[in-house]
TrEMBL record:
GO molecular function annotation: methionyl-tRNA formyltransferase activity
Domain Formyl transferase N-terminal: 149-252
Name of the featured protein: methionyl-tRNA formyltransferase
Keywords associated with the record: Protein biosynthesis, Transferase
Region (Disordered): 112-141
Keyword presence, Transferase: yes
CDD domains, alphabetized: FMT_core_Met-tRNA-FMT_N
Family, as annotated: Belongs to the Fmt family.
Length: 423
């Protein structure tokens, strides 16, 4: 006789996904389990939302152990600069400590099989590459047990197979802020904003071995049709999505415990990517990007990376780039056709009662760009407004102060040519 705790069931149940009618899926085999001993891996506010919901749902867990990145020391520091180093502790670590949860960091799970020991500020990234290290999870997760559950959300590191193998495939889950397989990768929220999506979603997926793909596991939970405001920023979306992810995760865990969980494979043909963003992502490309796209980049990335360009080879950050609606009349713009090129900036002195601004010509809107012959593109340029800048090595300043400090060989007929098409 098969004991109840090992009962394998197959449920045939309709599941509507992504708001699409007529798409139905049946379950694969699932096991009736729970409550769980949980190993929770995460780092930021999105992962805090998931852990908080699980912590409050005392019916789904017996114990919780949290795994986070290590504390980071930022800045050069040292005695000569008065100990200017700053210690950065991720939000999930702080939450775990505040709630008295058992906590481990990545340095404690790395094994001596890593090809490089952790020395210096960049060594951790090298040692934690899945191809060069093996992780040993904390006790009791170093031994396989069907009551163990691996949960991840915004962890920032690929889980190596040596850790995944310690958990049953249905008991290793990830909370991902997109409707998978859309936006597989490290930055789904950022690319949702950059691409101007009007709605987004949250998925709970099974974690699979690295060789099967990133974010490629079967889907066991979805919350879709989440509105993305037209002026959404990354911090706003993070705050909005975090509790929703937690609610969906708890709902999914309760379905697993009840034996009603449904898993469906992803359609890889629909895959889009959300690669990691960095400083180069935030570089303005005026001849390729519309002013609206550059504004979206600002809203998606400025919490970490300011939009920037170069003027005569000198780096300058554009701290408040705004899209100027096409219906706006711009009397300051030169009437000379040869001046109207993406990357050309003018100083607008006409703003009464407000700080002065520069207006930067950008490519036409992306939906128009492909259909326009080159001869018509000047008539469909979009415009970016900037009032505050930060030149490299200098303080933040009003754009007029920066403009007045530019050399005469940079300014021609009250216009400046920015680096429109960087390599």
């Amino acid at each position: 006789m098969v004991p109840p705790s090992c009962l394998m069931i197959r449920v045939a149940r309709a599941l509507r996904v992504g708001g699409e009618r007529g798409r139905y899926f049946t379950t694969s085999q699932v096991s009736r389990r729970g409550p769980f001993d949980v190993l929770f891996c995460g780092s930021d506010a999105f992962s805090v939302g998931s852990l908080k919901a699980v912590l409050e749902a005392t019916d789904v867990w017996k114990s919780i152990h949290v795994l986070t990145p290590d504390v980071q020391v930022i800045g050069r520091g040292g005695r000569k600069v008065g100990g200017a180093r700053q210690v950065y502790k991720c939000e999930l670590m702080s939450f775990a400590e505040e709630n008295g949860l058992t906590l481990s960091t990545l340095s404690s799970v790395k094994t001596v099989e890593s090809h490089q020991q952790s020395r210096g500020p960049t060594a951790e990234k090298t040692a934690l590459k899945p191809s060069s290290s093996r992780w040993t999870p904390p006790t009791p997760f170093d031994q396989h047990d069907d009551s163990h559950l691996l949960l991840t959300a915004s962890f920032g590191h690929i889980i190596p197979n040596s850790l995944l193998d310690k958990f049953s495939p249905p008991h290793r889950l990830n909370v991902h802020p997109s409707l998978l397989p859309k936006y597989r990768g490290a930055a789904p929220i950022q690319w949702t904003i950059i691409n101007g999506d009007k709605s987004t979603a949250i998925s709970v997926q099974r974690l699979v071995e690295r060789g099967k793909g990133i974010d490629a596991g079967d889907i066991v939970g979805v919350r879709d049709n989440i509105d993305v405001p037209q002026d959404a920023t990354f911090p706003f979306m993070m705050q909005a999505l975090a509790p929703m992810g937690g609610e969906l995760l708890v709902k999914t865990l309760r379905e697993i415990i009840a034996g009603t969980s449904i898993a469906r494979p992803q359609d890889s043909a629909l895959t889009t990517r959300a690669p990691k963003v960095d400083k180069e992502t935030s570089r303005a490309r005026f001849s390729q990007q519309s002013a609206l796209t550059i504004n979206r980049l600002h809203r998606a990335l400025s919490h970490n990376h300011s939009i920037w360009t170069e003027v005569n080879g000198l780096h300058v950050q554009l701290l408040d780039p705004k899209y100027v609606p096409l219906s706006t009349t711009l009397s300051v713009v030169s009437e000379k056709t040869e001046d109207l090129h993406p990357g050309t900036a003018w100083l607008d002195k006409s703003s009464e009662g407000r700080s002065q601004r520069i207006l930067i010509a950008c490519a036409p809107l992306e939906e128009d760009l492909g259909a326009l012959p080159n001869s018509d593109r000047q008539e469909h340029l979009t415009w970016l407004e900037v009032r505050t800048v930060k030149p490299k090595g200098k303080k933040e300043m009003p754009v007029k102060e920066w403009w007045n400090g530019l050399s005469h060989d940079v300014k021609v007929r009250n216009r400046v040519v920015l680096d429109a098409t960087p390599a």
